[in-house]
């Protein structure tokens, strides 16, 4: 089982208890769609890792994390997208 709402607020101090309850209510009202989206994202990430390899993906993700220039960050994101879709 996951964290209690109060524990989530303590762990993520920028969230209020009302925000946590609203997010949980939204999740429970839309659980099938949200779970399907999360599964699709996981499959996409696995496909990207297979395509680029763990090392290549790590290097690109690391570059993106430290890119302070928005143009450079966009270039890296474009490279990741092209690598994923094979274009």
Concise synopsis of the structure shown:
The chain has helices at residues 5-11, 17-29, 31-66, 70-85. It has 87 residues and is mostly helical. The longest helix is centred in the middle third of the chain and has 36 residues, at 31-66.
Question: Can you describe what's shown?
Answer:
This protein is mainly alpha-helical and 87 residues long. It has one domain (5-85). It has four helices and no strands. The model has no long low-confidence stretch (mean pLDDT 82).
Spans with pLDDT under 50 lasting ≥5 residues?
Answer: none
**Biggest sheet descriptor:** none
Task: Give the CA-CA distance, first to last residue.
Answer: 41 Å
Computed Rg: 17 Å
State the domain count: 1
Order of helices and strands: HHHH
Mean pLDDT: 82
Strand content of the residues, in percent?
Answer: under 5%
Derived from helix and strand composition plus strand pairing, the structural class reads: mainly alpha
Alpha plus pi helix count: 4
The amount of helix comes to over 70%
Beta strand count: 0
